[in-house]
Amino acid sequence: MGLARAWSIGLHGVDGDLVEIEADLGPGLPGLSLVGLPDAALAEARDRVRAAVVNSGESWPSRKITLALSPATLPKQGSSYDVALACGVLAAHRQLRPSALEGLVLLGELALDGRVREVRGILPCVMAARRAGMRRVVVPEDCLDEASMVDGLELFGAAHLSDVLAWLRGDARLARPARRRDPARPPLQEDLVEVVGQERARRAAEVAAAGGHHMFFVGPPGSGKTMIARRLTGLLPDLSVDEAMEVAAVRSLAGALLPDGDLTVTPPFVAPHHGVSAAALVGGGSGLARPGAVSLAHRGVLFLDEVYEFGPHLLDGLRTPLEEGEVRLARKDGVVRYPARFQLVMAANPCPCASARDTDCTCPGTVRRRYESRLSGPMLDRVDLHIALEPLTSLSRGEDELLEDTATVRARVLAARRRARDRWAAMGWRSNAEVPGPAMRRILPIPRESTEELDGLLRIGLLTARGLDRCLRVAWTLCDLRGGERPEAADVHAALELRYREAAT
Fold it and tell me: Is the dihedral angle over the CA atoms 210, 214, 220, 226 positive or is it negative?
């Protein structure tokens, strides 16, 4: 009889757990039993592992083999356990020293000829191994650049099972990652100076970037809605290393990580098509759900162009992520959580015919109301800035027009962000948009004389309690942009005008 242990990582969303694989060789008919809640892909490992071991020149034990994956109550899915399973069996058969597997996490799928194939989610797996206190990790060689984003571990890359076995026996070396490069921000490809006119929309983009606010553009085709939205990430501050790792971990699970494996500090920009499914937008799928577009846009911008073309159920599915900054998906295999703290930017034409001017619109009132009703009132109430764009009347710029590029506007945004971060740092909030309304009113209340206009609109029902809180957040952002200490009545009026222009005039 023989007993050995190997280790791998089981993912549950972006969180990983250390999985201990016990391999036992006992009396009985030759065969392999796999226990510990494996899914279909993992249950098929018995055939992949046996063929890979034999085709790597090793002998497969003609014994009854039991492989137990613990914790037994944690659902295990995927093919990333293959290398660990193979090494556990060979260590139990004493073809490897069991002590060689101590403190070692093995990740990778095995081909029938013994090749180690890449798998999704390597980055969160390696992060989980570090949290669990493991010292060494072996990953597929094609995933070595991705794994090298995590420091504090000895990382090795393997192209074939025979390479792993020779390394464990001390007869060979495995590939090591190249020297890790510092995170960098790629040069901007699109600049705000390219936007013609639309000063109010440009100002709204600056306010949105400075405070982390959600934004809704309405205007005719060609007025610059998409241009401004795409340039918003250039105004946002760089991601910290921890935030960049969060973004990279989600993208690793979705198979959308950059091929060079570099860690980027540029906030992501995600723009799904209006034909997207609910699972692709919010997350989903069979078994344990996969991340959707809202999680891929974590710490960045989610842009919904032609928002009225999205199904109402898709748009209402965004309400919880907007409020809580995460997605919770319940499936038969359990509940997973994915981060989803993004800035929402929506754009739409004013009506189905998309006329440049209201006087040219041919849509009956009932058609326009039905068109606009696809975006529910509760969803609109969660958007801080509502901006109407006018059609362009000339491509020429006046000599007195302020030509501000992204770098100039970004400098003001970063200064405003620093003021907000310093103000809320003791409470753990990094931007005005993250501050809960009750806490904002209690900790740093705005003088009553500055909020009389909001009180009046609240009394007559033109402003909701949620809308009141969002106006106060925008007022704080406007105060930060001008370098003030406390929002004044002018800041509150400007915030209300950006939210409900017709109510403020």
Answer: positive
